[in-house]
Amino acid sequence: MSFLDDTIAAVATPVGQGGIGIVRISGPEALSLADRLFFSCKAGRTITAAATHSIIYGDLRDPADGSLVDEVLVSVMRGPHSYTRDDVVEINGHGGMMSIRRILEIVLAQGARLAEPGEFTKRAFLNGRISLTQAEAVMDLIAAKTDESRRIALDQLRGRLAERLEALRLALIDLCALAEAHIDFPEDDLGAGAWEEMGQGLEDIRQELGQLSRTFDEARFFRDGLATAIVGRPNVGKSSLLNALLQQDRAIVTDIPGTTRDLIEECLNISGLPVRIMDTAGIRSSAGTVEQEGIRRSLRALEDADCILAVFDGSMPLNAEDHDLIAKIVSRRAIIVVNKSDLDEKICFEELLPPHMPLVRISTLTGEGLDILKALIVKTNLRNWNEEREGVVVTNLRQKQAIDQAIAALGRGGEILRCGQPLEILALELRDALDHIGSITGVITPEMILDKIFSEFCIGK
């Protein structure tokens, strides 16, 4: 028996206290199973006889002894017009760990299997209700940290990326069919014009895929967050900057060098851009073992960051540690943050820094310059977003890698066509490109990839 024939169940609401908790059941036995537990307040009313997309009020009882478990509302959604395209029942009980756990226990005792992470959404994909890009968008929508992140995920969920990729896939299928037809019937000379048209068709598809791939550089920030490291030598105001941006005392601030010894990470919403901002240990030469480990982590955060906020104390001359930091970030996407603008500045930073590096003066004490810094973070990292945000974008690394592999295969195919190499080699490259495009939407996807994708979902979704 296929696992798709199982009836599965899981808690679909967050763990903890709440007004309502939901146990979701999906599968061929969902209706009859729920019927064995449910007793309507109206005589003779049953789950199996209920109309689809209806809600019934009644009691949920344990069939083992008839004891009352909870007072519930039961939602009935018959397949194929349901989330999974199977019959779905959702038992809405009172929120709370013990109540919902007890409902799930008696549902499982009646023969349902506990759902695996993401199994409801996986069934929706396998049953053809949504594409793989839409399934991944479900997870993105749940994890969205800003309204802009939510909008992007919702566009993906509506199938805009899948539709565009499917159009490109169908166009590529036509070109592949033309090449393979000529392999089978070489006596039919299509003429030079046909091959030129094929070459242009391949290039057009490659260019469109390239446009999609380039959107990833900035769109990914809305899915994963912009990794931003606050770096600098001790006591320049890194922790004070974090606190000022968050508008709360998240990091300890003292005059003692080396107070921050580990990474502190928080999420900040700046004009819809989710920013994962990290306060790091001050970078300096230190003999202390613990502080040295903090400095090592700071340097690693600096290497991994998408954006660097390099903080300097404007009230003091630069020292060797400041100059070392400038050397480390000169080729990186960094913003120079000169703190303590409420005091007299000891040095002209514009004369020391490369002209391409943006600079902002702030005071974490008075709040001066913080709004300018926030705007600069957005402007520095979302240079092309105004043009890209109205179109289809790619936010998922798996999708981006598959697109790039398809682009590479089409590039090789175009070169084969220009050099007059055997069409059999061209056909192999075109099929390779088709496979990579198909793997994005799920037309062709190995089981191991599906398992990895859906394992990242929460149980109950």
Please name the defining characteristics of this protein.
Four Helix Bundle (Hemerythrin (Met), subunit A); alpha/beta; Gyrase A, domain 2; flat; Rossmann fold; 461 residues; 3 domains; 46% helix; six-stranded mixed sheet; single chain
Distance between the termini: 23 Å
Calculate the mean pLDDT score and round it.
Answer: 86
Q: Roughly what fraction of the amino acids lie in strands?
A: 15-25%
In CATH, what is the homologous superfamily of the largest domain? Answer: P-loop containing nucleotide triphosphate hydrolases
Which stretches are low in confidence, meaning pLDDT under 50 for 5 or more residues running?
251-261
The number of helical segments is: 15
What is the string of SSEs from the N terminus onward?
A: EEHEEEEHEHHHHHEHEEHEHEEHHHHH
Q: Label the overall shape.
A: flat
Radius of gyration: 29 Å
The CATH class designation of the largest domain is: Alpha Beta
- As a percent range, the share of helical residues equals 40-55%
Question: Strand arrangement, largest sheet?
Answer: 3-4-5-6-2-1-7
Label the structural class.
Answer: alpha/beta
Q: How is the main sheet built?
A: 7 strands, mixed
Number of strands: 13
Q: What is the CATH third-level topology name of the largest domain?
A: Rossmann fold
Please name the CATH architecture of the largest domain: 3-Layer(aba) Sandwich
**Number of individual domains:** 3
